[in-house]
Structure formats: structure tokens, C-alpha cells
């Protein structure tokens, strides 16, 4: 790409043109070279949206306990800070598992009344 830009005779290419026209031609050349030499990237997969079983207590446990203790351990690596971080991490994971279990239990109870609940459970498991 750099070779093609350097081989271009810009004086001949831009002679007799105004500033705006010169810029347009230059931009066109760059766009063509980018299309030719730069591969297109794949877009990121779409996010699935909100996870229904994450409650406010899970978010609070993760954000306040785990993250604060992780930052504390990151900047001051002592055994006491690491122990506090491990306890907070385990507490956050336990809270998450508990809320997921409760959510699935509630959905299972609703299956008796609604057939749509089966699809909700399948969506969570996948």
C-alpha cells in the first residue's frame, strides 16, 4: 500500500485542481487502497441481552466485595489481602449459583401453568 502511494505522481495527478478536489481525489485513492489491502473484520457476535437470574444481590456481591478486594490485592500483594479476595470471590460465585438455582426452580414451578416456560429454560441452558 505504501509502495503504491509513493509511486503515484501527485503533482501530475493534482495539477489544476482546487484544494477540495485534491482532497477528494486523495481520499478516493486511500479508500480504494484500503479496500484492496485491508481485510474486512468480522463483527462481534450479538450479545444475548440481560441474564434473567442475576439479581441485584449478585451484582452487589460481585461489584462491592469481589472487585474491591481484587483491586486491593492487586496493589498490595499480601496473604491477608489474597485471603479476603478469595473469600469475596467464593461468596460472589455462591450467590450467583444460588440465584440461578432459585430462578430455575421458579421456572419449573411455572411449567405446570405455562408451556412458554419450557422455552425459557432451554434458552438459559444454551
Any chance you could write out the topology, listing elements then pairs?
Layout: H1 2-7, H2 10-14, H3 19-37, H4 56-75, H5 79-111, H6 116-125
Structure characterization notes:
The protein has 126 residues and is mainly α. The chain has two domains: 36 residues, no CATH class; 70 residues, no CATH class. Helices cover 74% and strands 0% of the residues. α4 packs antiparallel against α5. The longest helix is centred in the C-terminal third of the chain and has 33 residues. The chain is elongated.
Summary of the model, kept short:
With 126 residues, this protein is mostly helical. The chain has helices spanning 2-7, 10-14, 19-37, 56-75, 79-111, 116-125.
Indicate the structural class. mainly alpha
Largest sheet: none
Counted beta strands: 0
Total number of domains: 2
List keywords for this structure.
126 residues, single chain, mainly alpha, 2 domains
